Amino acid sequence: MQQAQEYGAETLREMQKRSIEPTPENYSVWYAFVTGTNAELRRQVEIMASNDQEFDKFRNQSLFEEYILPGLASGAIASAGDDLDSIVYRLNATVGEAGESAEKYGAALAMANDSLGARGADVKSIVASLMAETKAMQERNMALQAELKESTSEIDTLREKLEDSKREAETDGLTGIANRKCFDRSLAELSSAAEANKESMCLLMVDIDFFKKFNDSFGHATGDQVLKLVARTLMDCVRDRDIAARYGGEEFSVILPGADLGTAWEIGERIRIQVGAKKIMKRSTNEDLGTITLSVGVGRYRPGEPLSDLMKRADEALYLCKSKGRNQVLTEEKLPK
User: Fold this and answer.
1) Would the pLDDT of 76 be above 60?
2) What digits encode the pLDDT tens for the residues 276-304?
3) Phi-psi region at 249: left, alpha or beta (left = phi > 0; alpha = psi -120 to 50)
4) How many Å apart are CA 48 and CA 125, to the nearest integer?
């Protein structure tokens, strides 16, 4: 309790020091930063602070959507899972009751058979008993069918809820494409599949050139517009099986299963050309803000290697683009040996 209070006080001090509005969303971001419960968030904040970036409402909202919101959606998934467990428990109980009823009905039939075989048995009484038991069995079965129908409907609803929550947890709140969490999971899964199927797999690391300058010059609303434009272009240019994701800030990534370096370079070049061909307009004034360019680094997965090595080569190819003037696509083959 005392430690929680200390964390809370420290969180408020951090927010006051940076002139951050004390909203619930902002508090959750900075509480996670102070406590260190979200290592990726803490790392991102430290990088932003080292670059003297101002933590205004737009950046705080971006941090909340990228690092806090997915965890809240995961809570919804857990809640839906609990509800599903409850339904399964009820179904098991109902089916168990039906089994007991069937067992009881079988016993009644056996008793009737024994009675009919006995001399002087009252056949009319036996038949009446069987009819009563049959009617009771039918009523129990009807109740079971109604319960099963209702439970099936609830399960379908929960399944949809789980799917929606899963999509929300793995979707970037601003651009609508996959987020870092989805990227990490997909890269692990697709690299394993590539190794098992002896297929090639490549990774694009995509960065918007001079985005900070653009953001500072024209405002965060226009910067958000640019991020959405790049995300849409990525989705238009990649293949159905590819995974395009917002990696963080103004950086994007694309996983290309089945692609060699040549194919990956072509896809990266297509993305670069299409983004560069689009004019950026300021919506509030219809002012032409010109164009933006991309730098793209390409790495190829080597079976069995740590994924961090693949990402490092793609990153190094990206920074080589930056050092050579930006607005180009370079593969890991261009890296110094």
Assistant:
1) no
2) 999 888 777 888 888 999 999 999 999 88
3) left
4) 88
250 is catalytic: yes
Answer yes or no: are the C-beta atoms of 275 and 214 closer than 8 Å.
no
Do residues 238 and 255 lie in contact, with contact meaning Cβ atoms separated by under 8 Å? Answer: no
b/e string for 237-246 if b means 16 or more Cβ within 10 A?
bbeeebbbbb
pTM flag (> 0.70): no
The residues pairing with 252 across neighbouring beta strands, listed in sequence order, are: 206, 246
Q: Is the distance from CB of 255 to CB of 183 less than 8 angstroms?
A: yes
Calculate what percentage of the chain has a pLDDT beyond 90.
35
Contact 297, 198 (CB under 8 A): no
Q: Please tell me the distance from the alpha carbon of residue 29 to that of residue 59, in angstroms, as a whole number.
A: 11
Q: Would you state the torsion angle of the CA atoms of residues 284, 62, 314, 312, taken in this order, to the nearest 10 degrees?
A: 150
As given in the structure block, the two tokens for residue 117 are 């075989």
Residues 250, 287, 305, 333: which is the catalytic one? 250
Asked if 86 and 151 touch (Cβ cutoff 8 Å), the reply is no
Query: Alpha helices of the chain — where are they, by DSSP H?
Result: 2-17, 24-35, 39-50, 57-63, 69-117, 123-169, 180-196, 211-218, 220-237, 261-276, 307-323
Give the CA angle between residues 304, 309, 312 to the nearest 5°: 155
